[in-house]
Amino acid sequence: xxxxxxxxxxxxxxxxxxxxxxxxxxxxxxxxxxxxxxxxxxxxxxxxxxxxxxxxxxxxxxxxxxxxxxxxxxxxxxxxxxxxxxxxxxxxxxxxxxxxxxxxxxxxxxxxxxxxxxxxxxxxxxxxxxxxxxxxxxxxxxxxxxxxxxxxxxxxxxxxxxxxxxxxxxxxxxxxxxxxxxxxxxxxxxxxxxxxxxxxxxxxxxxxxxxxxxxxxxxxxxxxxx
Length: 226
What we know:
Number of domains: 1
Structural class: alpha/beta
Radius of gyration: 18 Å
Strand content: 25-35%
Shape: globular
């Protein structure tokens, strides 16, 4: 971790601690608010790079025209880190923000965070739900949640896409790059997902050791993949 990342991490931890202990917020809520405040401050300072892009995306979320979409998707009361909207252009397996007048896709923009540091962004197409990272560094979102599940021997929620991850208040993970993400899941005992995702997740974790159990929801019950 370079000096800039260390300073950002220290800033994040300090602000989250103040919000948790002095502000009375839960740890998850404190971390989410701290990240939003840092992004807003960096944007106001003209901070370049992915934090500036994330802050701009978060500000677009407040546009009145997007309120019906946010409500219809069940995202009006999301408790999670900064997120928003952008217009993006695919660039191989990554994406870049569109230039004015350029043909682009509307997408959700969310941060990939590890130890409180935003190290990449992920765009999820509103239309197709195809996901790409900004820098090619993020194989998934929810790294800190994976670590919590691993340390607590607790099940990990794995969501189909960024929209469902946001709807679940980011309390789990979402896979962006299946080729690279599987190694990040090793050591988690149980992966909980939708029935639609269970088969793919089961096949993808064949080489994990120990191999996680795959549990998926059905009406009125939870089933396990063979």
